[in-house]
Specification:
Blueprint (H helix, E strand, L loop, with lengths): L9 H15 L8 E4 L1 H12 L7 E4 L8 H15 L18 H12 L3 H7 L3 H18 L2 H9 L17 E6 L11 H5 L6 E6 L18 H10 L3
Parallel strand pairs: 1-2, 2-3, 3-4
Helix pairs in contact: 1-2, 3-4, 3-7, 4-6
């Protein structure tokens, strides 16, 4: 259906997950709801929409608030680049012609936002090396990703806003972010402020270190696995 596919949001995605578990798989309870980045935002919504379904919640690399500020801006840059790309053609670009050029813009923004400045400088210490590294990253993305898919994935966050209902979360919740996450920077103070409204919630911001990877720190299990074990022990019934 390309871009004729109905517009959906995170609320639709969580509902689809819930129906899959309950109707298709016959499950009525989960030991843990856990996710990273977009999945972390889904985890906050799970805790509000289905508060008795799980024993514990662990969102990583996200904030319990509406997408806004720089987080909204980088998404809009990609969305606008794709929608205003003549080659995108309303989502009807022919497969034989390859991906529209705007997918390259999307890839470049993803490279820019997904790590921390220290690692990027180490990886690309000169102008020529930066171009080389960026070109390689873009080449990989344009070979495997699709402009319509990227557009829908980023646009889906339009209805994400767990802020008004944080008090409805009943299960123990541990939120983990990293201090060098450009998408969810600790300077905003949002996580520290909002976690106080979660009845059984606590938050950890991992300090910057040689082990952290900016927004990508959530993929390094060694950084948070001990906290996960602790959460599971504390929430055991």
């Amino acid at each position: 259906m390309h871009a004729k596919f109905p517009r959906y949001g995170y609320l639709d995605m969580v509902e689809a997950q819930y129906r899959l578990l309950t109707e298709a798989l016959g499950l009525n309870h989960a030991r843990l709801a856990m996710g990273t980045s977009m999945g972390g935002m889904h985890t906050w919504l799970w805790g509000e929409l289905h508060p008795d379904f799980m024993d514990a919640l662990m969102p990583l690399a996200c904030l319990p608030t509406q997408i806004s500020g720089r987080n909204r801006a980088w998404r809009r840059i990609i969305i606008d680049a794709i929608r205003n790309d003549q080659a995108w053609n309303g989502g009807e670009y022919p497969a034989a012609a390859g991906q529209p050029p705007s997918l390259r813009t999307a890839a470049e923004m993803l490279w820019f936002m997904s790590s921390n400045p220290v690692l990027r400088q180490k990886e690309a210490p000169t102008l020529a090396k930066t171009d080389e590294v960026l070109d390689k990253f873009v080449e990989q993305i344009t070979k495997t990703d699709d402009a319509n898919d990227v557009l829908y994935a980023l646009d889906a966050s339009h209805d994400y806003d767990p802020g008004p209902n944080l008090e409805k979360i009943r299960a123990p919740l541990l939120a983990i972010n990293s201090a060098d996450d450009l998408i969810n920077p600790p300077e905003l103070g949002i996580l520290e402020r909002e976690i106080k409204r979660v009845p059984h919630g606590r938050a950890i911001v991992l300090p910057f270190s040689h082990k952290t990877r900016g927004h990508g720190s959530h993929t390094v299990a060694a950084l948070w696995k001990d906290e996960l074990v602790k959460l599971l022990k504390e929430s055991a019934k």
